[in-house]
């Protein structure tokens, strides 16, 4: 089992250690970060985060059994008027716990915050089309593919396509409280 707690400066080095390549950084953080990931970039990422009026909530994922930080996730672009937000920065960083359903638990926790605490209507995310395990996880918690953004990110000489996915509050409630 896991819990989410706000991401703190003391978590910076652990996250930096998990991001080993430019490709992995793009998968995790999108185009807003530059490789190598630095504490300064993370300071900027955390600026104005994690308070009652923030447009972004940034979390470390804690394994309850050990107390270890094993991952990272955020809820950003929080728009309280339109009742929407975007899940991002999803990472099961500890390779020893991958493939054990941690990603699914993380998604359930972040959606619980979005729909139960923040009372949002819609949550979206973007995922690269080749990331089949992540897509399967997101579909399992109720996300639906909306559109494919072809060749939307450039990395080296390659272009990557991105699925836009979303889930609505009533879909979340039907799955979790049906």
Features:
single chain, 178 residues, alpha+beta, 6 helices, 35% strand
Low-confidence stretches: none
How much β-strand is present in the residues?
A: 25-35%
Widest sheet: strand ordering = 1-2-3-4-5-7-6
Structural class of the helices, strands and pairings?
Answer: alpha+beta
Q: Estimate the mean pLDDT confidence.
A: 96
Radius of gyration: 16 Å
**SSE pattern:** EHHHEEEHEHEEH
Strand count, sense and barrel status of the largest sheet are: 7 strands, mixed
Q: Work out the helicity level.
A: 25-40%
How many distinct beta strands? 7
Supply the number of helical segments. 6
Tell me the span between the first and last alpha carbons.
23 Å
Task: Categorize the overall geometry.
Answer: globular
Topology overview:
Layout: E1 2-6, H1 12-18, H2 22-29, H3 39-46, E2 57-63, E3 69-79, E4 84-92, H4 102-117, E5 122-128, H5 132-140, E6 144-155, E7 158-168, H6 169-177
Parallel strand pairs: 4-5
Antiparallel strand pairs: 1-2, 2-3, 3-4, 5-7, 6-7
What's this model, at a glance?
This protein has helices at 12-18, 22-29, 39-46, 102-117, 132-140, 169-177; strands at residues 2-6, 57-63, 69-79, 84-92, 122-128, 144-155, 158-168.
Please characterize this protein's 3D structure.
- This protein is of the alpha+beta class.
- It has six helices and seven strands.
- Strands 1-2-3-4-5-7-6 form a seven-stranded mixed β-sheet.
- The longest helix is centred in the middle third of the chain and has 16 residues, at 102-117.
């Amino acid at each position: 089992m896991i819990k989410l707690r706000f991401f703190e400066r003391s978590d910076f080095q652990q996250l930096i250690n998990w991001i080993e390549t430019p490709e992995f950084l793009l998968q995790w953080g999108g185009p807003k970060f530059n490789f190598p990931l630095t504490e300064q970039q993370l300071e900027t990422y955390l600026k104005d985060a994690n308070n009652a009026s923030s447009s972004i909530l940034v979390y470390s994922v804690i394994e309850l059994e050990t107390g270890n930080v094993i991952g990272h996730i955020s809820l950003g672009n929080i728009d309280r008027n339109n009742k929407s937000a975007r899940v991002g920065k999803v990472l099961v960083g500890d390779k020893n716990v991958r493939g054990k359903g941690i990603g699914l638990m993380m998604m359930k926790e972040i959606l619980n915050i979005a729909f139960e605490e923040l009372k949002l209507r819609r949550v979206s995310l973007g995922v690269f089309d080749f990331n089949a395990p992540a897509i399967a996880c997101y579909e399992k918690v109720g996300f639906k593919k909306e559109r494919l953004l072809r060749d939307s990110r450039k990395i080296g000489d390659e272009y990557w396509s991105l699925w836009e996915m979303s889930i609505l509050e009533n879909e979340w409630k039907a799955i979790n409280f049906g």
